[in-house]
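Title: Prediction job returns without error message
Component: structure pipeline
Severity: low
Priority: P3
Assignee: unassigned

Description:
Job completed but the reporter wants confirmation the result is attached to the right record. Sequence as submitted:
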Amino acid sequence: MKCHGFTLIELLVVIAVIAMLIGISLPVLHIARQQANAVACGSNIKQLSLALTVYDQENGTFPHGFDDSIPSLVPPAGGHVGDAAYDKMGWWWFHFLANILGEGFDKGTVVWCPSRRIQDPCPQANVLCGNYGVNRAICKDAPGTIGGEFVGKPLSLHQIRSSAETLLITDSGYSLISWRGATDAPGQPFENPAREGSFYVPGLVINRERTLFFGHEEDAIYGRHPNRSVNAGFADSHVDRVKADDLFVEEIDGDYSNRSPLWLPKTKK
C-alpha cells in the first residue's frame, strides 16, 4: 500500500495560511480583550457608585476624598496606602466604603481598573495611581488638609441638582480628581511633586502637553479604554462610557467654562 505525504510546497502553504489566520485573529482578540476589560471596569465603577450612594444614605453626606484627621491617626485596616514620599498618609474615600463593598474590597478587585496602563513598578503597585478617582468638588477633603476649594464638608446627594449629569467617580490617574485636571487654563497645579497634583483623565488630548509622573505616559496620553473613552459614574448612580475629551473644561477669557455640573455640581439652596 502506497503512503502519500504532504509535499514541501503544500506544507509551506499550510504554514502560510496558519500565519495569516493568526495575524488576522490577534488584533481581533486584542480588541475583544480591551472591550471585556472596559466592561469589567464599568462594573467596578457601578459598584463604587452604588457604595458611595449607600454611604451617603447612611451618613448624610458622601465620604471625604481624603481624611488625615482620624482620632489618634489610627491607620485604616491593612495600613496606609501609597508612598509617603509622594502621597498623603491617611484615610481615602475607598476606605470608608470597605464595609459596604465587603468581599470586593477585601480582595481588592473592585478598586483596581483592569485596563490600567501604569508601567513604572512603584506606582504600578500603588492603588492610588491609575485606577479610579472621586470628584473632589463632592467628596471634599477633611478640614485641615491642603486643597483650597476642595476642603470642607462633603456634599450629600440631596444637595446636588442634576445628579444624573454630575460626575461622581471616573477612570483617573489618581484617587482624587477635579476639573483642574481637565482644563488647559494656566496655573493649574498639575506639575506637582505631591502626586495628588498630577491627576489626569486618561486619554484627554491636553495630557500630551503636560509633565507626567514616570510610568503614567501611556495611560494618560493614549487612554485606557477603546477610542480614548472612560467609564464615568454619576451622582444618581448610573454609569456611562464617555469620550475623555467630553470632560474637558474650556478656558474662556481667563476663566473656565463649567458647561455642565460635571465637575462643580450645582447645589440646591
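Comment from assignee: result matches the submitted record. The longest strand covers residues 229-234.
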